[in-house]
Design brief:
Elements: H1 4-9, E1 14-19, H2 25-32, E2 40-44, H3 45-53, H4 56-66, H5 79-86, H6 91-120, E3 126-130, E4 145-150, H7 153-162, H8 167-174, H9 180-186, E5 189-192, H10 199-213, H11 224-227, H12 240-253, H13 279-289
Helix pairs in contact: 2-10, 3-6, 4-6
Length: 308
């Protein structure tokens, strides 16, 4: 997942947090790092984006592109006003969003890299990168592990309503992001957040701690039950024995080329994907397994049985 050039300049592992708008992923990310020793640094890309918008050069360029209508009474960028111009299905809005991204995304990435580099020399054991558009920007290449925070739709919509957003606003913003199925499909770990208890926070903390214990260059140091502690949605069973064991055993039987765009820096550990297999995910696995060039030994106990 991470380029070799990035690995050579950064020694601290980075966990990227994925999830839907309103899934509580930011709260889970922050909470998981509380009182951990050695500490973990939580980077909020949205907060970094706010800082970038306050830079004079960026503000000047955006006013040139979108006029002074995007400025508030204090002379700073009004993010809500800017959002009306860049989120939506109109061709003008889509073109405006691309212009905005070309201005701010390189600046955000640069700041994130600086803070990751600082963490590597400041005693942090890991970095948690919370970025709503982690995949859309290509920032997944900064990460060694991707975790998807899931939740049910009703609770998610209640969270969003609490922000004062309409469902139309949600739809406009989600249209500019990867689909939820696509986000789940690239995650190494899926954790369900019930938005009521701390189960997701505990699951994320335990998963990262177990992952960090596995030394680089070793194969599947921890058992899947140690690595994939997961808070599940009621009524849904995670296919740990089916998926995690399959991936873990397949990785140990051959020199696996992971189905991602770049090699894993902490590559020896075959961290399993934990989720219920939907048709989409089953198809994704089948396609990517078909491109592996090494033989796979699949035994009967690793084959997931059909649901009754």
């Amino acid at each position: 997942m991470t380029s070799q050039s990035a690995i050579s300049t950064r020694k601290v592992p980075v966990v990227g947090i994925l999830g839907a708008i309103g899934s509580g992923k930011s709260f889970v990310a922050r909470s998981a790092a509380v009182d951990v020793e050695p500490p973990w640094l939580v980077l909020d890309a949205d907060r970094v984006g706010h800082e970038v918008l306050r830079e004079e050069a960026v503000r000047t360029r955006l006013v040139e592109l979108f006029t002074r209508q995007i400025l508030g009474a204090d002379g700073e960028i009004d993010r809500r006003q800017l959002a009306t111009q860049v989120f939506g299905e109109l061709p003008t809005q889509q073109a405006a969003r691309k212009q905005l991204e070309q201005v701010v995304h390189p600046q955000i990435r640069s700041r994130l890299l600086q803070q990751i580099a600082h963490a590597a020399h400041s005693g942090y054991a890991a970095v948690i990168l919370d970025a709503a558009i982690l995949l859309e920007t290509g920032w997944r290449t900064l990460c060694d592990l991707l975790v998807y925070i899931d939740t049910n739709e009703a609770d998610r919509h209640a969270q969003i309503a609490g922000r004062g957003w309409s469902m139309q606003e949600l739809a406009r913003r989600e249209a500019s992001q990867w689909s939820l199925d696509a986000k789940r499909s690239v995650a190494d770990l899926v954790i369900f957040n019930d938005l009521k208890t701390n189960s997701a926070t505990t699951a994320l903390r335990d998963a990262i701690l177990s992952w960090l214990k596995a030394p680089p260059g070793t194969s599947s140091h921890a058992e899947s039950s140690d690595v994939t502690t997961i808070a599940q949605e009621p009524g849904k069973a995670a296919s740990q024995n089916g998926v995690s064991s399959f991936v873990k055993n397949a990785a140990s039987l051959c020199d696996v080329k992971w189905p991602f765009d770049e090699p894993r820096p902490f590559s020896g550990m075959a961290l399993p994907l934990v989720c219920s297999l939907t048709n989409f995910e089953s198809a994704w696995w089948c396609v990517n397994l078909s491109i592996w060039h090494q033989p796979l030994k699949i035994t009967s106990q690793l084959v997931r049985q059909p649901s009754p």
